[in-house]
Amino acid sequence: MFPLQAPLSGLMALLLPLLLAGCLDRASEGAAKASEEYSHRAVGETLVELPGYEAQRRFMGSVQVKEQAQLGFELAGKVASLFVDEGDRVAAGDPLAQLDTRLLETDQQRLEAQQQELVAELQLVDSNLSRIRSLSSSGFASQQSLDELESRRQALQAKQSSTRAGLEANRLRREKSLLRAPFDGVVDQRLIAPGEVVGAGTPALSLLLRGGAEVKVGVPVRLLAQLRPRMPVEIAGQTFEASLIARGYNVDPVTRTVQLRLQLPPEAAVVNGELAQLLIDEHVEASGFWVPLTALTDGVRGLWNVFVLQPEADSGLYRLEARDVRILYANQERAFVSGSLADGEQLLSAGLHRLVPGQRVRLTPVTAALEP
Predict the structure, then answer these.
(1) At a CB cut-off of 8 Å and minimum separation 6, what does 326 contact?
(2) Alpha carbon separation from 238 to 16, 228, 266, 267, 271 (Å, rounded)
(3) b/e map 133-146, b = 16+ CB within 10 Å
(4) pLDDT tens per residue, range 143-173
(5) Phi, psi of 189 (to 5 degrees)
(6) Could you tell me the pTM of the whole model?
(7) What CA dihedral angle connects 102, 107, 112 and 115, to 10 degrees?
(8) How confident is the model at residue 139 (pLDDT cuts 50, 70, 90)?
(9) Averaged confidence pLDDT in the chain
(10) How many angstroms separate the CA atoms of 157 and 129, rounded?
(11) Which of 38, 130, 259, 337 is the most exposed place for a label (fewest CB within 10 A)?
(12) In the prediction, which pLDDT does 369 show?
């Protein structure tokens, strides 16, 4: 019997340290988990309940130049020259295009020759009249001859007036064969080419007024009271102070908005048809709280969750409690929410992805409350 007890005693002596080491490891692991549970430091901020919030509304519109003209010749003809191309800046009165005027120049020469012929004939008639009057006073010429010369003189004067009118019409046709810019602007489109035969009134060039851009945008009727003489307009990342020119008095049956016209400043380098956003601040009456976007996490049924810090008595720790909230308005940094929150509660403002409801954390206090 005694020989068997010696090996058992030795075996127990070997196993006892191993069992004690395992127990110590489990105790250390539990202490580490407990320490890890409390080691999370949360950033808490105080909720402040507000009766409403300021929301910045954005309404999409477009840039439109004040004047946009489709220019064309008043006469039909063949395009002889084009002096501008798309994108060129022009001043009022600058030549843009020219029709072929060779036929008009030939007609001008014919009318001028006819005018000279009539002048010569009138001089001859005047000389004959002078002689006939002298002879008639002496009784050597009949009254009929005098009347015939007077009639001839009147006919030549009428032809001379007609020729002068023809010359003036020719001058106007030659003048209208040159297309000029009606105002300072930029050539938007060129619709003809040299050598092309165009009809009267056919669009040749599209000209946009330079420095007269406007923004046309529709806003809801409820915001008409918020309009001011000068309002911010954002175009391609730039914000301009635009002057309110006029507003409509009819509601669009499709968009249910009223159209506004706003004048952009002269230095605004914009493009016709470019998108523009009108910014209007609106005060909304609704009870709620401002929270940072980092304090929100996905919820269910279209709601969002925030974590409220519930203090545990005499421990200095806080237990996380999930609350459902609804976002009423949001900007790039904050959201105005409503839900089961109370004024003065502590809110977990960051790090929600590392924590879960029910977990205990230590609070890192901040002095600023969540106010807009």
Answers:
(1) 302, 303, 304, 337, 338, 339
(2) 78, 20, 14, 12, 13
(3) eeeeeeeebeeeeb
(4) 777 778 888 889 999 999 999 999 999 999 9
(5) -140, 145
(6) 0.59
(7) 180
(8) low
(9) 84
(10) 14
(11) 130
(12) 39
The Cβ-side half-sphere exposure at 212, using a 13 Å CA radius, reads 12
Q: Length of the chain, please?
A: 372
How many CB atoms are closer than 10 A to CB 245?
A: 13
Instruction: Enumerate the H helices of the chain as residue ranges.
Output: 2-39, 102-138, 143-176
In angstroms, the CA 284 to CA 352 distance is 29
**Adjacency order of strands within the sheet including 77-82:** 178-180, 95-99, 77-82, 197-198
Query: What's the whole-number mean pLDDT along residues 120-134?
Result: 85
pLDDT in tens, 81-118: 999 999 899 999 999 999 999 999 999 999 999 999 99
List Cα–Cα distances, 227 to 66, 90, 153, 231, 244, in angstroms.
Answer: 22, 36, 75, 8, 8
User: If DSSP codes are grouped into helix, strand and coil, which group holds residue 201?
Assistant: coil
Neighbour tally for 67: CB within 10 Å: 13
